[in-house]
Amino acid sequence: MFRKKIAGSWMDDAFLAALYAEERYIYRMSYLYLKHEQEALENVQEVAFRAWKYRKSLQDVTYFKTWLTRITINAALDHLKKYQVLVWTNDTAQDRSEPQIPSFEHVVVDQLYLTDLLERLDVRERSLVTLRYQADYSFQEIADLLDIPISTVKSTLYRAIQKLQRQQAKGGESG
Fold it and tell me: What is the DSSP letter of 94?
């Protein structure tokens, strides 16, 4: 896919084509972290810039999407650090085959409650929960993506879930 044809020109074209093919994925991941459409779109541009700038660091094209995901997450976290805004969204894909559709009020209340609970997690815990339960990454994929041991992924997720359960038991009260 990224093999040179003539003096590197095909390599750049193939890279841009692959990057463009993942644009919607980059936007979805950005939106999960940033929650606002405009900020997510800006993050997509930042990811494209960083990916282009560091394209020569990609050693194995089979890891292109993982490499791009890491750039996306890092860019989103950089944005959050810059503006000191921590947000969470619950935009999971709905199974269209389900015959029962919850009322709008139930959906809004559930999302607000979940958002409130998840905002109490630190950025690292929230990132792991996002990757595991919204982006459907396996423990190993998360460990590879974030370059941390799989045991750290599991223990951090376990602690985050325990923290959420304690908050839920308290009725979502602060403290």
Answer: P
